[in-house]
Amino acid sequence: MIVDVVETYRNLFEIDQNLDSLVKNIELLNYLNPLNIEQEKKNFFACKYRKNPVFNYRKIKFNPYKMQRLFFNQQLEHIKDDHIRKLYQDIIYEYSGLIQCIETIGSGKGFYYNSLKVFGTPKERDVENARFILHFEDEIPESTAIKMHCVDDAETYFREFAKRYAFTFNIKKSTHISASAMVLNASETLLLKKNYHFSDNELQVLANHEIGVHMVTTFNGKSQPLKIFSNGFVNNTETQEGLAVFSEYLSGCLTLRRMKELAYRVIAADSLIKGYDFKDTFDLLYSQYKLDRENAWQITLRAHRGGGFTKDYLYLTGLKKIYDYYHNDHDMDILLTGKVTLEDKESIKRLQKLGLANKSMHITDSFSQNLNTNKKLDFILCNLK
């Protein structure tokens, strides 16, 4: 059966393979995280937040112009199926946009405008949703003595958590990431931030987010006949991050504090289109919204890395879409087939019928039952626009 499908769609598989060999070079986050975060953080705090950080970035390991040409040299006219050809055409435009992002990292407005093309920017509705969340009073922590875990303890926790899944992955530690943890899709690696200390809740959140969704879709994508499931459909960030935060919700570890963090990210992303520089966004969060300086730094860094990175607002919009989708009793498994999107659900079903896609091999553990008991979160999520 598989041999027949490959023979029938020979040109499609050839193009898919070509794109796979090219896209391995353009994992944006490999280049986007500054190399000197800790030193610039010290400098920024030392100058009392008056001077913008100056970040250094990795050198690009490919020629952007030649890479663009190789993508657009693909002979898509050889794909006879109109629907599939359009899918690949859109994907090539997406990859082209990512190359332009990487090429302009650190160039200020150049990178920001390219980021806008790929990820968009918050709409007024999104900003209103963020403000709505921030109006709620903080939950009182159960204990003031919160136990914190070093990165080695975190690695042990994540390895134990991962035993519930039938895949293995690498864990590495780095000082050159802006988040406390992140998944590198191409190398099947969970990257942890050195010298970071994790609370019990953070460990649960990150395990369900990074392993329960991002690693699950990484390995499901790599099990598909077509490599685009692994490398990513167009605009997949919103769905992927929405699924990841929703996994936090279903596992019972999503908190109002975490929801507020996502709301602050929207505020920070929105500040970019208003022309705010790093210190302005930090001041907005720290002085006006009274966020503590560590978190204000972290959220500002995420928004301003590269020269203005708008992706972070998609976590909240994605969560709302997935929350509504789930509560309308739709199939969640199809959204785990790879780095796919909610909007391409029918395309995925069609590819499955043609024998060009498989069902999800791995299913997010938290999706089996809803363990959330926080009624306030349900009220918020139901009332987001």
Task: Describe what is shown at a glance.
The chain is mainly alpha-helical and 385 residues long. The chain has 18 helices and five strands.
Describe the model:
This protein has 385 residues and is mainly α. 56% of the residues lie in helices and 5% in strands. The strands form two sheets. A three-stranded mixed beta sheet has the order 2-4-3, covered by helices on one side. Strands 1-5 form a two-stranded antiparallel sheet. Helix 13 (256-273) packs across helix 15 (293-304). The protein is globular, with a radius of gyration of 21 Å.
Write the layout of secondary structure elements.
Blueprint (H helix, E strand, L loop, with lengths): L1 H7 L1 H14 L4 H5 L4 H10 L17 H9 L9 H22 L5 H11 L4 H11 L13 E2 L1 H11 L8 E5 L6 E4 L4 E5 L4 E2 H23 L5 H4 L5 H14 L5 H18 L4 H11 L4 H12 L9 H14 L17 H9 L21 H9 L2
Helix pairs in contact: 5-6, 6-7, 8-13, 10-12, 12-16, 13-14, 13-15, 14-15
